[in-house]
Structure formats: C-alpha cells, structure tokens
Amino acid sequence: MPLASRSAFAASPDGTPWWRDAVIYQVYLRSFADANGDGIGDLAGLRSRLDYLADLGVDGLWLNPCYPSPQADHGYDVADYTDIEPAYGDLAAMDALIADAHSRGLRVLMDLVPNHCSSAHPWFRAALTAAPGSPERGRFIFRPGRGPDGELPPNNWPSVFGGPAWTRVTEPDGTPGEWYLHLFDTEQPDFDWRNPQVQNMFDDVLRFWFDRGVDGFRIDVAHGLYKHADLPDWTSDHYYNGHAWNQPEVHEVHRRWHRIAASYAPDRELTLVGEIWVPEVTDLAAYLRPDELQQAFFFDLLMQPWDAAGFRASIDRAFTEIGSTGAAITWTLSNHDVHRATTRYGIVHPEEPHESIDLQTRLMRPRGEVDTALGERRARAAALLLLALPGTQYLYQGEELGLPEVLDLPDDARQDPTWFRSDHNDPGRDGSRVPLPWTTRPGDFGFSGTDEPTAAPWLPQPTWFAKYAAAEQAADAASTLSMYRHALRVRRTAFPGTADTVTWLDVPEHPNVLAFRRSDVTCVVAFGTEPLPLPGEWGEVLAASDALDGRMLPGGTAAWLRHPAR
C-alpha cells in the first residue's frame, strides 16, 4: 500500500491552503466514462479522461462513493469502507487514479458516508442474527416497537426517501422482533454514533484513505450521525426533523476528524467538506469553526430561483454568516441530488408537486414546462457569476456541457429509491445522473471506451444528448464547454486568491441586474430580458457567457470586465 507522506503539490506562495480558492469537479463515477464497455462508468474510464479535466482548468475532483456496495442507492449504501466496488475497479486502480491525477495537478477527494451503511455490511448482517440488546445490535439503532405487540414503529419519523424511517426485523427464532432506524432506504441502516466502536471504525477509514494519498473527503449527511438520545416523536409541522438532524454531539465528531487530518504533514493540506442541510445559514456556520470542518456546501444559493434580488440576498447571507467564521465559502449550483441548473433556470410554467413532497425537495427538483434555450443561457450566466465569487466552487459533471435534466426517463428505467419509496410521486434524481455524452456516436454517445460495448449505458441517454457531446463542443468556440474553459483560465489571473471580498455596484435604472466588483474585475449578470449597456468605466470584457452586441449585454447573460488601471 502506498504511503502518502509528502505532498505532490507546491505550497501556495502566501501560505493559503489550495482549497480556499479552488474549483472542484464532481465525478458521479457510474456515469462519467466506461472503459470496459459494460455500461457502467469506472476508475479506468475516469483515468482516460483526466486530460479533459486538466484542460477544463479545475483544481481537483470529488468522487461519489466507489466502495463495494449492493447499489441500492448507488454507492451510498456501503458494504466495505476500505475497498473499491468491483464494477469500478480495485485498490490498484484507485492508487493509479490518484497518482495520475496528482501528476496533472489535480487533487482527489473521496465521499465518506458515515450516517449509515449497507444492510450487506458485515456489522449489520451480524446484528440481524444477534439477540436484542447484544453488542452487535448496539452499533445500530434497534428499538422495540410500540403497541400491544410491538407492531408500531418506535416513533413517527419519516424516511427522507418516503415512507417510515423504521423497519421491523424477524428475529432468529422466526418471531417479529425489533425495529431498526434508516433515515433513508431500508437497505441503509443508521449507525449508532454513541457507540465507540462506530467512532473508532471511521477514524480508521479516514487514515486508510489519507495514507493512500487522498486529499480530503466530502462528508455525506454531515449534519446527521447523532439522533436525539430519546428518539421522541417529531410533532412540529416544519418539514425539518430537529430530532433526527443537527444534534449538538455531531460537532465533536468533526473536531475529531479535523485532528486526524491535521496529524498529517502540513503540506498535504487535507480538507473535509460537509454536505449539511440545515434550516438557517447560522446553523451551517457552526460547522465551520476553526477546529471543525474546513468547508461546507452553501446550498442556499443553489435553492434560489432566477432573480437578482434573491441571488444577492443569498450571497450576502454567505458573507455575513460564513465569512465571519474565517472559513472559505463553498459555492455550488448543482450536484447529483438536484435537477440540473439548465432545467431549474429554464422553468417558465411551474407545476405544483404532489402534496407529499417537502419544501426542500420542491426547491431542489422543481417541475414544470422548460424553455431549454432560456435555461442554457441562464445557466451559463450563473456559472460565470459563481466562478467570480471568492471561495471554493464545486461543479457537477455535465454542467460544463450545459446538460439539461432528463425529465422523461421511462418509468421502468428509474433506479432511485426515492421513486419507489414515494409511491412514484417523486421522480427522484436519476435524470441528473444519465451517463455523459462524449461524442455523437450512436448507441452510447462515446460513453464506452470500447468500439463494441457489451452493454448499453446503465441509464438510457436521450437522442438529443448528441447536441451536447463534449467532442462537438470542444471544436465550437461559442459552446458552453468553451465558455467554461475560457472562464476558468481567466479566473486564475483575474481574481487573486487574496481578494476575498466583493463590492456591490448599484445599477438603479436596471433593477434586475446584479453587479459586483472583486479586485479590479466587475461581474455583471442581466437577470431580466432587456439588454444592458455596459458602462465604459467598467473596462474591457474578459469573459462573457454569450456573445455581446458591442457593449450591450443581452438579457439572461453575464460578463466579466477589468477596470482600466488608474
């Protein structure tokens, strides 16, 4: 096993950690690139496309879970935290990926799933064959049911994926027995984080992968882990279950992991970034104290509809609450759990979702009639805005191609447990996970690295994916891919990492415009439909999301301009 004791990267001249001003590309491995033609993306396929990521201009990549898994939730049901899913490769393939990425100047982050594991994990299998009250069951949250015969769940908590959060087991003697908690799918039992064995196991997991050269972790459900000790009913009308999430004890876990990361050589600059869904930005800031997580996704901006005032208010909340902690703000507009930005920003006639779908899901995955051309234009503008902000930006694979959500997947192709557990009321997340189109080749759009794949892509690609193929866009200077490449090149020099504040610029005669200055560069977004004349004092245009008409910025587009030297 390789031992990564020294960094493969040069330290920043001013001592600023790399992740404070980085752009990270999220790789949903199963859908990125398939090297062996079996219809499933893999580590070898990712390795074959590392030059694409280096040419794009990102600083690192985050891999969604690639551990052994029955794939009930496509990797977020982990059966072994210190190995690689055979469909994706093996440990040698992972080592080779890390080495190849590092040689191209790309950091590698993995996905840690600590709230729950797979029902196929050896610990849970042992718990099912053990007796109530046994040490094996003590690693999970087993409780007797309510009602005369224990036939009712221990409390009224719902699963995030729909239905109840409890499942009753059959005891080894064949009788109905205890219930176990799963805040997601039945095949994802929650750990009991009050058990020291659980805490120690995850300490070992972090060290295992840090020793192999991984540069950090995105922590799944980082606001979970601990539950209220008494597991009381949730009686509030608010969709957010304050007994299941964001418990005070979870902060000590993140302090513990911070100490582990800090125990490695300082030039490794290891980072931990939390996926944290909390009701208020002030709650998020609590996870970013100096001895806890280095980063946490600021999802508030992602949840905003296309509106200048809403975007500005969200950005202000980030600077006020997150900036005050001293942490770098971690921005994103898309990921594997939400509808793609092109589709969200292109909705012209919203649909009312099923009454069972909560507010957070409605904002993450809105439905309605979509004007794709409008959505593409706005998504490019939003990307330019995102890349101008100080802090870290996370891009989801396919956003650089302008991919829309695939909303019309056949029902029999859907695999997201949300679709099944919601009684087909929530279409789920499969539409953002369709395998990428690399070329216009019929059948799989170049997803497979072989000329004659043995299987179709694991989710069907629509015929219109040909329009978004990476190879075609790379040859088109006006494409979304070319815009991203240009913007990422300009970003390296236009925005010094030390320029960590922005100054808002008022454009009173154009109220649906957002403009700010960072260092000597102005970022301006025209949220409305009317073109915006760009003032001459704003200087030369460095980048634009769409072609300008002289000094006129079309509605729904964005630009960066450099102020002339004084």
The share of residues in helices is 10-25%
Number of strands: 20
Please report the distance between the alpha carbons of the first and last residues: 56 Å
Radius of gyration: 24 Å
In short:
The protein is of the alpha/beta class. 24% of the residues lie in helices and 15% in strands.
Protein model, in words:
The chain has 566 residues and is α/β, with parallel strands linked by helices. Helices cover 24% and strands 15% of the residues. A hairpin with an 8-residue loop joins strand 14 (503-504) and strand 15. Helix 5 runs parallel beside helix 6 (250-262) and helix 11 packs parallel to helix 14 (480-494). The relative contact order is 0.11.
How do the helices and strands line up, and which of them pair or pack?
Blueprint: E1 23-27, H1 43-48, H2 50-56, E2 60-63, H3 91-103, E3 107-112, H4 122-129, E4 142-143, E5 166-170, E6 176-181, H5 196-211, E7 216-219, H6 250-262, E8 271-274, H7 281-285, E9 295-298, H8 308-322, E10 330-332, H9 341-344, E11 347-350, H10 359-364, E12 368-370, H11 372-388, E13 392-396, H12 417-421, H13 470-474, H14 480-494, E14 503-504, E15 513-518, E16 521-526, E17 532-533, E18 540-544, E19 552-553, E20 558-562
Parallel strand pairs: 1-2, 1-13, 2-3, 3-7, 7-8, 8-9, 9-10, 10-13
Antiparallel strand pairs: 4-6, 5-6, 11-12, 14-15, 15-16, 16-20, 17-19, 18-20
